[in-house]
Specification:
Elements: E1 3-7, H1 11-23, E2 27-31, H2 34-43, E3 48-52, H3 60-70, E4 76-80, H4 85-94, E5 98-101, H5 106-123, E6 127-130, E7 133-136, E8 141-144, E9 147-149, H6 153-164, E10 170-171, H7 172-180, H8 190-201, E11 208-213, E12 217-222
Parallel strand pairs: 1-2, 1-3, 3-4, 4-5
Antiparallel strand pairs: 6-7, 7-8, 8-9, 10-12, 11-12
Helix pairs in contact: 1-5, 2-3, 6-7, 6-8
Length: 224
């Protein structure tokens, strides 16, 4: 089973979260601050990290940044005691995949952990299926039913990035960095133009939809 590391300076929260995770069959590892979490990550196989923002020695922001350097694909679930939009945006910009605001229901946390692990498995493949639509990254083509569509390269990369982790929110800045690259000198509203084109191309296609998350960015929602 996957191993989940829980980094939080509140011992009661760590114990509660780990209890629910173990009841669902996960292995767990605990850290009381960011520095301890980094050391534990270096010596333990970890499949996902649940991390609190407010921790001593090294806070969640710094921990998130260091974990992303070590492993860009490691699923991260951030816990915050507040619900301000700027904190969510900062978390997503640093690379967190999802967040929960304290107090939270442990059952919701375990559900989000399972969803993140599933997204990660989808995101690591070269072929993604959304209903009747198949995205083939090796050939850079989209197969819809019996038809093959050739999308412009950046449209394909944008759709593939969103589809690889359905339900995850991406800011415009994240999508620019991951699709266009750090050296892109244009306006980040370029993302809006490409999202509009993708929505028009797949307006009547069941299986998925691209949603705007107000104040944050975009996410792709896949139908069950």
């Amino acid at each position: 089973m996957p191993t989940i590391m829980v980094a939080d300076d509140d011992e009661n929260i760590r114990e509660l979260v780990c209890l629910f995770l173990r009841n669902d069959g996960f292995e767990t590892a605990e850290a009381a601050d960011g520095k301890e979490a980094l050391a534990l990550y270096a010596s333990t196989r970890v499949d996902l990290v649940v991390l609190d923002i407010m921790m001593p020695v090294m806070d969640g922001w710094a921990l998130c940044r260091e974990l992303r350097k070590a492993n860009p694909d490691l699923p991260l679930l951030m816990l915050t005691a507040r619900g301000e939009t700027w904190e969510k945006v900062k978390g997503f910009e640093l690379g967190t995949d999802d967040y929960l605001t304290k107090p939270f229901d442990p059952l919701e946390l375990t559900a989000r952990v399972k969803a993140l692990l599933k997204r990660h498995r989808i995101g690591s493949t070269q072929t993604i299926q959304l209903g009747d639509v198949i995205l083939d990254r090796q050939a850079y083509k989209v197969i819809r039913g019996q038809k093959t569509l050739q999308l412009p390269l950046k449209e394909f990369e944008l759709l593939y990035r969103l589809a690889g982790t359905p339900g995850q929110v991406y800011t415009r800045e994240q999508l620019i960095d991951q699709v266009w690259g750090m050296d892109f000198a244009g306006d980040n509203r370029t993302i809006d133009v490409h999202i509009k084109r993708l929505r028009e191309r797949f307006a009547h296609t069941p299986g998925f939809r691209i949603e705007t998350v107000r104040g944050l960015g975009y996410r792709l929602e896949a139908d069950e």
